[in-house]
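Reagents: none. Just compute today. Alpha/beta hydrolase.
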Amino acid sequence: MTAALDRPHVWLPGNGEPPLLLLHGTGGDEHDLLPLREHLAPAAPVLSVRGAVLENGMPRFFRRLREGVFDEDDLRFRVDELAGFLRAAEEEYGVEPGSWRAIGFSNGANIASALLLRRPEALEAAVLLAAMVPFREPPDADLTGKRAAIVNGLADPMATPEHTSTLTEQLRGAGAEVTVLPHDGGHTVDPRSLPPVAEFLRR
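Predicted 3D structure written out:
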């Protein structure tokens, strides 16, 4: 394993489908979202990565200044760091560059959308579960040909309908095809949302 891959992660080989990139929420780790594979794309290879930042001992993908306020300087640094990790993983595991389909929950969704906006060449698509808005002013990205699904709960006190509409506008404004898949739940991965997410990935 190369030094660039010494970050904690899980790699599960697949059968040639586009690979899934799993990105956990605050306090999770690289094992948290692995069960989603069975529901979303059982034959796909999977790379699940642990966030490199600790907040009160809980792994995250980037720092925040307080609840709901992101450290955007750190976010940009961590996005570039993650993009470098993905390049090393592509080489190590024989993955076509830029073919990842990110599945992120909460903090993982926020790093996924930030990765799409700042380093669009790194991802083919992104599923954003309980997603907020990573950048107050998004980078000037060309997301033509990229796809994103925003899967937020209508009763989510953190990832609010306002976040959903702002993030949708940012991604569509950059040229992405955005599918909004709301559910009635809160800040969670709602099981009812998994079949439409699986359909989104199959398209």
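Residues 3-202 form a domain with the Rossmann fold fold (CATH 3.40.50.1820).
Action item: order primers for follow-up constructs.
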